[in-house]
Design brief:
The chain contains eight helices and five strands. It is α/β, with parallel strands linked by helices. The chain has two domains: 114 residues, 3-Layer(aba) Sandwich (Rossmann fold), CATH 3.40.50; 67 residues. Helix 6 runs parallel beside helix 8.
Length: 198
């Protein structure tokens, strides 16, 4: 709950794979005021502007972010522009990163016009969502390759090599597993094909 005189801060983002850099951003944003609102992009919005499926369900991300001690409230961001949210919650401080500055001219102008503040959160070295995704992808492909090789040794056909063999528990818990049939998997499948002499 806000109290009279509280400085309300708003930070918007996808936060699709929450990591240390995001926590640092929350800490920085909270330090700019008294009450931090995180506008969490909906999965529909992520599909629209990123052109891909979100990694985690929106309610799961909301619960995780709410558990962060720097965050006071999490609200859905259904639009790329947070202008309506800045007005609705009477935000005093708008926090964003420099990489999005060129897309937020209207929001920055609004905050300056009302006498509010605009703060820029820097990117934190050594922390990258893309790097985390690359690591997970490599592990997935390596696991598939190992499973295919095991099938080749046992004489089993590669038609039984499926994602749910690797991630059955995750699927059972409602996770979305995207089938990855990249170059490495095709090469591994070719080795099985050749080893059977057909």
């Amino acid at each position: 709950m806000t109290t009279p005189g509280s400085r309300i801060v708003l930070l918007q983002g996808a936060f699709d794979i929450l990591n240390y850099g995001h926590v640092r951003a929350f800490k920085f944003a909270k330090a700019q005021g008294d009450y931090l609102i995180v506008a969490l992009n909906t999965n529909e919005l992520i599909r629209d502007y990123k052109g891909r499926e979100p990694v985690m369900p929106w309610p799961h991300k909301r619960r995780i972010i709410e558990a962060c001690r720097y965050v006071d409230k999490v609200v859905p961001a259904r639009e790329f522009s947070p202008l309506k949210l800045l007005k609705r919650y009477r935000v005093d401080v708008y926090v964003l990163s420099y990489e999005w500055e060129h897309t937020k001219a209207a929001e920055i102008a609004f905050m300056k016009q009302k006498g509010g503040r605009v703060c820029f959160s820097r990117r934190f070295r050594g922390v990258s969502t893309s790097a985390i995704k690359a690591t997970l992808l490599k592990e997935h492909l390596d696991a598939q390759g190992a499973l295919v090789q095991s099938a080749a040794v046992s004489g089993a056909g590669n038609e039984h090599i499926r994602d749910d063999a690797l991630f059955g528990a995750a699927v059972a818990n409602g996770a979305t597993v995207i089938s990855l049939r990249g170059r490495q998997s095709r090469q591994a499948s070719a080795r099985v094909f050749n080893s059977r002499g057909t």
